[in-house]
Specification:
single chain, Rossmann fold, Dna Ligase, domain 1, D-amino Acid Aminotransferase, Chain A, domain 1, 3 domains, six-stranded antiparallel beta sheet, five-stranded parallel beta sheet, 16 helices, 25 strands, metal ion binding, ATP-grasp, phosphoribosylamine-glycine ligase activity, PRibGlycinamide_synth_C_sf, PreATP-grasp_dom_sf
Length: about 475
């Protein structure tokens, strides 16, 4: 059976390897914008073919489908989904894992996502306002007296989020003036008419629930937590993710089974609301990027229309059942036959990037990496190739996170193995990575107990999700 994978990062490497290792005997074909060494290995091992092209082009995806004649497809990244990659498969009569472009809007547009949640009264929703005028957005920030999060109105790769919390009143005006100056910068990231979304600020530990659905059956995967900030202890600019953790079991140390179940209901309710809104069943991954807050308990920060990266690298190694077959069942709308088995052991993932990432990607481009994957695996580390290309037998960086290293075991044991494996990587540049991932859980546990006490009191009082209207004129939006 032939499968065509669209994408070229560490997430797609993890999926390609799962497909190549499946007892189903898949032949893996791939369309990527560059030759990812890990995907290349899976393609060669299974006797498939590696195609190089524009993964956001419907025409090139259509050409690849006609050349390969796959039995099913898998679309990994969000941008091809936004550009209609899954639509192309379905027009050709090919089952595919991935929502059509109208349903992928749940990730592409934060405004549409918030509107859906309010229209269908889905739990975990936040108050918000959206702005086409950057001047009006700046004025709102200066005039409004509460805490806010300011975001680009569409998906821009995790960039541009700014937060102001008025903990000290005498700093309020200064903070607001500084934040309002960031509006032009954030707005410049957005191509569409609606530029800025301003949300009420909430606080708590973040986590992600990825759910596979074929439009009928919903299969929740183990939780993961992403570490967005570039530098140690969660400081510095936001990135696509410098690492992640998952486990033990289906949970995280600071999320209980009741919160997991409620999060799953929120994701299901959202997928059903999308179907009502667009007329199309949601098929593929729908992933809730959540925060546990005193306002709602599980609270939606955003949705993904695909698996997260680097969360995929922490989740797939923990799935002991056949993940490749789960993808096939999803594409063929037979997910009710799926059996998901998850190891109890947690996992820790660290991303490794060249010096210059994330602010000077030009400096992080064109660097040569050398590593012995087998030796690292013998040390207990799984290696996934990300923004790094295979060029004439060499591994050349492309400016972003080049590698993702995963290890299973207790959080501390996995972290120690990663310490050793990173020392086995050599490059003609310094490496950027974080060593605190999976090592700050005590702080999160203390924080979550306060949050949990607060939202559970709201449940008892019947005031879950209730807060004062926060727009200057008393309106909700």
């Amino acid at each position: 059976m032939k499968v065509l994978l669209i994408g070229d990062g560490a997430r797609e490497h993890a999926m390609a390897e799962a497909l190549a290792s499946s007892p189903q005997g898949y032949r893996v074909y791939a369309l990527s914008s560059y030759i990812n060494p890990g995907i290349r290995e899976a393609v060669i091992r299974t006797g498939g073919e590696y195609l190089k092209g524009n993964i956001n082009s419907q025409e090139e995806i259509d050409s690849a489908i006609r050349k390969v004649s796959p039995d099913f497809g898998v679309v990994g990244p969000e941008d091809p989904l936004f550009h209609g990659a899954a639509d192309v498969f379905r027009r050709n009569g090919i089952p595919v894992v991935g929502p059509n472009s109208s349903n992928a809007e749940i990730e592409r547009s934060k405004v549409w996502m918030r509107q859906i949640m309010w229209k269908y009264k889905i739990d975990g929703r936040l108050r918000f306002r959206s702005f086409t005028s950057l001047e009006e957005a700046s004025k709102f920030i200066v005039d409004y007296g509460g805490s806010v999060a300011v975001k680009p109105a569409e998906q821009v790769g995790g960039k541009g989020v700014k937060v102001v919390a008025d903990i000290q009143a005498y700093l309020s005006n200064e903070k607001r003036r500084a934040l309002s100056k960031s509006v032009d910068e954030i707005g410049s990231l957005v191509k569409n008419e609606v530029k800025i979304i301003i949300e009420e600020k909430v606080d708590g530990p973040e986590y992600t629930l990825h759910v596979l659905t074929d439009g009928h059956t919903f299969l929740p995967l183990p939780l993961a937590q992403d570490y967005k900030h570039a530098y140690q202890d969660g400081i510095g600019p936001e990135t696509g993710g410098m690492g992640s953790i998952s486990g033990p079991g289906n949970l995280l140390p600071f999320i209980n089974s009741e919160e997991y179940d409620k999060t799953f209901r929120i994701v299901q309710d959202t997928a059903n609301a999308i179907k009502q809104e667009t007329g199309y069943s949601y098929k593929g991954f729908i992933s809730g990027q959540m925060m546990l807050t005193e306002l709602w308990g599980p609270t939606v920060i955003e949705f993904y229309s695909r698996m997260g990266d680097p969360e995929t690298s922490s989740i797939i190694p923990r799935i002991s059942s056949d993940f490749g077959y789960l993808l096939q069942l999803t594409a063929e709308e037979k997910l009710s036959k799926a059996k998901l088995e998850v190891t109890e052991e947690p996992s820790v993932v660290r991303a490794v990037a060249p010096l210059g990432y994330p602010l000077r990607r030009d400096l992080a481009t064109g660097k040569e990496f050398q590593l012995d994957v087998r030796a690292m695996e013998e040390k207990g580390c799984k290696v996934y190739f990300g923004s790094i290309s295979y060029e004439g037998g060499k591994l050349i960086s492309r400016g972003s996170r080049a590698l993702e290293l995963a290890a299973l075991g207790s959080f501390e044991d996995a972290s120690r193995r990663l310490d050793g494996c990173i020392k086995m990587i050599s490059a003609n540049t310094e490496l950027v990575y974080r060593t605190d991932i999976g090592r700050t859980l005590d702080e999160q546990m203390e924080k979550v107990e306060i949050v949990r006490y607060s939202y559970q009191n709201r449940v008892k009082r019947g005031s879950l999700g209730v807060s004062a209207d926060w727009a200057p004129n008393g309106g909700l939006w």
